Structures are given as structure tokens and as C-alpha cells.
Amino acid sequence: MRRIELHVQGIAFWAPRLPGWERARAILRGEAAAPAEPAARPSPALLAPTERRRAPDTVAVALEVAAGACASAAREPRTLPSVFASTYGDLAVSDALCGQLARAPLETSPTKFHHSIHNAAAGYWAIATGCAEPYSALTAHQHTFGIGLLTAAVQTLSSGTAVLYVAYDIEARGPLATMARSRGILGAGLVLDTHPSDRSRMCLELSVEEQTGCIPTRARAQNEALVAGNAMASCLALYEALAEERAREIVVALPGAKALRLALAPRP
């Protein structure tokens, strides 16, 4: 596969101990301490107050970082195609549905079923922003972040337009947690484009290689500890590099003994 050259125009991040990109950036650079009390969950302004309270954690964190990435890039959300990636989707809702089916299946909530589908967050985003552009909702188990990023990059290159990429996972609940392990809440967003702009943060070059000899990059131990156990924690090395704003190479594991090599460089 030939190299894909892109520009990072918008960045967003949210985790209980890295609540928002501006704070996360300073913490990941070692310039500030993580909050002593973790935040409960984000509260996306896109949703009306009632919807905000009822929305599951997956929707809350995905919409928070999607809106943050668009604002960072100064892009109108309704104009961007998007890729939403989650390893497990909404494990809390799935656990609640399984419990309900075991106890009283005829009382199963249609709303909870609606929230359990893998594209629920992407659907909420499209409705809340009035976006009629195409979106994808995908999973690739432990390789979800890399596959999602590669998908967004290929779409950006093939369409010649900016693409929004959103990756997120939440806490596992109940018996599902013994198989689908994930802790806390994590959301990460990027706006990628083939063209530079005044908002371009970094240049990003992607290539797919054989994984032989390639070791997936990890963030520094003190930063990894802030998102430890989350199924999407593998994204942190890239965001640490984006926070440092210097040339760096990141390796992300892909399926089939492949690896995604990311070469970051400051904007010229």
C-alpha cells in the first residue's frame, strides 16, 4: 500500500482523568497534573438537556469528541463524512438488555434496544447535527482503533474531502465484563484532510507494513495509567505524540500480521 499523506486539522479527547483536549494536552506533555477526582462523564452541548441525561455513555462521549474535533478544525459538522469506531459498542446497555431478557423478556425496552446497536452514536450525531453525509460504524476487536483510522484515511484520500474520525469505548458491565474487558470511558476524535489549512495541527503519513519486527507503540507509563483498562487505550500513543507536536513515528497493530505506521511531523 502506498503512503497516505494527510493533515490533522482537528483534535479532541475525553477520559475521566483527561477531560477535554486542552487539559489532556497539558497532562500528556507533563505540564499539568491529572485531576485528583475523575470526571463522571461528558455532557455534550449538542443534545437537549433531557436527551443529554438519557443518552448512554457511548453517545455522550462520542458526541463530545466529535463536536470537539469539528470545533478544533473550524468545520461545520453537517458537512463532514464520518467514521465511528468502537471495540464493543455499549456494553452497559447490552448487559441491561440481557438481564431483562432473562427476567422478563416481554418488558424489554425499545429505547435500550435502540441504544444497543453499534451505530447508535453515529446516528445520534447525524440527527443532532443535521448531517446527511455518509458515515461508517465499525469494530475490529483489539485492532479497532487502527482499522478505524485507516478507514478514515482511505476515505479522506479517495474523496478528497475532510473526514471526521471518532473512536470510543466505555466500561464493561455484568457477565459480559468477563469476556469483553473494558474500564472507564474514553473518546478520541480527529478531523483529517488531504489539504493543509490555517487550522492544520500536524502532518500525518500512514503506511501499512508487515508486522514482523514492528512493536506497537505505547504511551509513557504515567500517561497509560490514566486510561488503563479501556478497550480503546491503544489510541493514547498517537494523542501523546499530537500533544508533544514534534516529529515521531507511531506503530499501531492491525489484523493479519500487519501494522499501521504513522509518521507525524509539525506543520511546515
Write the layout of secondary structure elements.
Layout: E1 4-15, E2 18-19, H1 21-28, H2 49-54, H3 57-73, E3 82-85, H4 91-103, H5 110-116, H6 120-129, E4 135-138, H7 144-159, E5 163-169, E6 186-193, E7 202-210, H8 221-224, H9 236-244, E8 248-254, E9 258-266
Parallel strand pairs: 3-4, 3-5
Antiparallel strand pairs: 1-2, 1-6, 1-7, 5-6, 7-9, 8-9
Describe the structure.
By secondary structure, the chain is an alpha+beta fold. It has a single domain, classed as Thiolase/Chalcone synthase (Peroxisomal Thiolase, Chain A, domain 1), CATH 3.40.47. Helices cover 34% and strands 23% of the residues. It contains 9 helices and 9 strands. Strands 1, 2, 3, 4, 5, 6, 7, 8 and 9 form a 9-stranded mixed β-sheet that branches.
The gist of it:
The protein has 268 residues and is of the alpha+beta class. The protein is built from 9 helices and 9 strands.
Mean pLDDT: 93
Q: Give the DSSP E fraction (strand runs of 2 or more residues).
A: 15-25%
CATH superfamily: Thiolase/Chalcone synthase
pLDDT under 50 segments (min length 5)?
A: none
Largest pleated sheet: 9 strands, mixed
> Could you name the CATH class?
Alpha Beta
* Alpha carbon gap, first and last residue: 25 Å
Strand/helix succession:
EEHHHEHHHEHEEEHHEE
CATH architect. name? 3-Layer(aba) Sandwich
Q: How many alpha or pi helices?
A: 9
Q: Would you give the CATH topology?
A: Peroxisomal Thiolase, Chain A, domain 1
- Helical percentage: 25-40%
Shape: globular
Structural class: alpha+beta
Number of domains: 1
Task: List descriptors.
34% helix; 268 residues; globular
